[in-house]
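Notes to self after the call with IL:
- keep both proteins in one doc
- input above output, always
- annotate only the second one for now

Protein 1:
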Amino acid sequence: MGDAPKRRLPVVGSGAAGAAPSGGGAAPPGGGAAAPEKRKLPVLQSSGDDEGEDRPPWHWIALGTVAIFIAWLPLAGLVNTLLRKMIERTGDAGAEGSVRLAMVGLNVIAFALAGVAGGYLVGRFGGRAGRREAAASGAVVAALAWALALAEGAPAGALGWALLLVVVVTIGSAASYAGGSAGLRSRAAPGPPRSR
């Protein structure tokens, strides 16, 4: 062990002239410092067309559900804040029925817009997922909203609750289906021509 020659490791950044290059070759003639050897790293390129290919389609139902909730909650908050201000301004008891009708209508519109947005996300970026998964995410959100309303104990009979479930699921799945269709069309549409 004592007879083996000792190897000296180069100090990084020392810049010593005449140091042997790390590749094991001799120093360049004239005693100048050797240029460091350039290493090329492999580059992973993605085409962008298959952004969602690695996820199974049922994952996109959950992602679409979350996207619809994220879009729906601010819209519903804005609609109900505006309607509350309308109710405070009108102290007329006769106008209360029209305000309640406006409340229901505007909340349905907010829910449908959120469904379209979430369905578009699933259709545009969903890989193998498409209209069916978009519609399923809208139906899941509608069923969850219905269950929350049922848990709050709003006054309605069993037939009323069943009818409400059918209506809400129909609206949610139809809006999300439409959004998923639009997302699929935008995915298939050719991009703008590239300028050279």
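Protein 2 (the one to annotate):
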Amino acid sequence: MYTTLATARHALGHDRWHQICGTVSGPRDGRVRITLSLNGRTVLDAEDEDPGRLVTAGGVGLRGDNTEMAFFGFTAGNHTGGRPRAEPPAEGTPR
């Protein structure tokens, strides 16, 4: 079951790479903050007041509906400092 916490509208340029970074922080006061940035700009900031399994160890997944996507440099971890950065593949790399 999926729950929509927030939505944001943002246009993406076609035929080029975009850097997307999502973070989950907390729990604090029983709530978890979720942010999403696109090319270094925050486009979504939401707070989950009933985070359930987000506050326990578990798996991660990537989901995209009605789109074509390719992933590289995907990492998940317990970070306490700066966000990891990945560079897009070199020109000519299959997309």
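Annotation: The two ends are 31 Å apart (CA to CA). The beta strands are 20-28, 31-38, 41-48.
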